[in-house]
Amino acid sequence: MKIAAGPLREGETVVLLDRKNREYTMVLKGGNKSDIRGGMVSHDELIGMEEGAVVRSSSGESFIMFRPTLAQFILNMPRGAQVIYPKDIGVILIWADIYPGATVVEGGIGSGALTMALLRAVGPEGRVISYEIRQDFARRAIANIRQYMGEPDNLTVKIKDIYMGVEEKQIDRIILDLPEPWRVVESAAESLRSGGILLGYIPTVLQVKTLLDTLKDTGNFTLVQTVEVLIRPWDAKGLSLRPAHRMVAHTGFLTVARKKNRGGNIAKNAPPRDGQCV
User: Fold this and answer.
1) What are the residues whose beta carbons fall under 8 Å from the beta carbon of 5, sequence distance 6 or more?
2) Measuring CA to CA, how many Å separate 176 from each of 54, 92, 163?
3) Residue among 79, 61, 51, 59 nearest 22 (CA)
4) For residue 2, which of 157, 147, 156, 155 has the smallest C-alpha distance?
5) What is the mean pLDDT of residues 165-191?
């Protein structure tokens, strides 16, 4: 994966901030110039600079230059499908307990936003397997991932319909960004290891209700919870500190569930519970 430190190199993505913190992104290429707010910025001048440097356009306007954070890259990258927004991605990583070394199956790669976060969370010892039925979405997502992270050795993209079944077994986590995630519940129960986590990301309460009913009917899952994430920024100008007029409100519901061990094995030497025959 790319090293996100040191002098900027050709081929990297950078974000320039103007005096109002408006963002302008570009991919550095020797000999190129970018038109920003009516002034030209030479890529040759940026290559080799350190992050945080102040650069000037041909019109004399100043910008501060950084490598984009993952959140900034996601919001500015080319899209095929709609992305999962950073505010939801952060909660997904924690509520689905994505950890270094985990094997994660992702249903629907979209434009690659969540995939990049999963790859960083599982680390080089982990693995992400993404199912996607649309070849054009997969190509766009892979291009975005390569641009931001380089070539990931631990990503497998399958051009397959996950509704037809999850092929892998003993999976640690399954994340579904699909219109009908309940169609994967039965297959997920067979593919997840005991204690594994299933998480569905869906936009409407009717979809949530169907997913909840399916999880209950299978009898394979417990600790089922549904949440949504709302973020309200604040404006700080001098002595004025107040909520912004606009906020990032509803984007989707997160429903998380944990697979039970249906074997019913009782640990040896464990004390009997109330009502338990011995």
Assistant:
1) none
2) 42, 11, 11
3) 61
4) 147
5) 97
